[in-house]
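Sequence in, structure out.
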Amino acid sequence: MLIGQGFDVHRFAPERQLILGGVTIEHPLGLAAHSDGDVVIHALCDALLGAAALGDIGHHFPDNSAEFLNIDSRILLRRVIKTLQEHHLSVHNADLTIVAQAPKLASHIALMRQHLANDVQCTIQRMNVKATTTEWLGFTGRGEGIAAFAVVLLTGD
């Protein structure tokens, strides 16, 4: 068994869609990024790659590559899973935390879990997503951006 952890953060930006965990969420601001800015998936990718000692998301999908400009982060996640499979590794479970003062995310969690479980090829019972605020403290509390943390357990043959 291999354990990995990941973290990502992006600042809010106008004229962008807000996408978290593969779900488009109604909000006046999206997240600034080279890709679609999905901090949840980016943290998950880093945790998966870290558990396998395969570097990080920036190494595999550099932000100076036109290939990844505005790319759907679910595509990146599926590529990470394919890489793990080539190393005979699979996801046993994942636990993700989204840190955002706004928008409220509770109504979107079930769909995020479903998308992420499908993409990493695990059961929904082994994919946990939760959201919290920072009680108005720090950059997330001031509404400047969103952060996400991920912890994963991989198994191999």
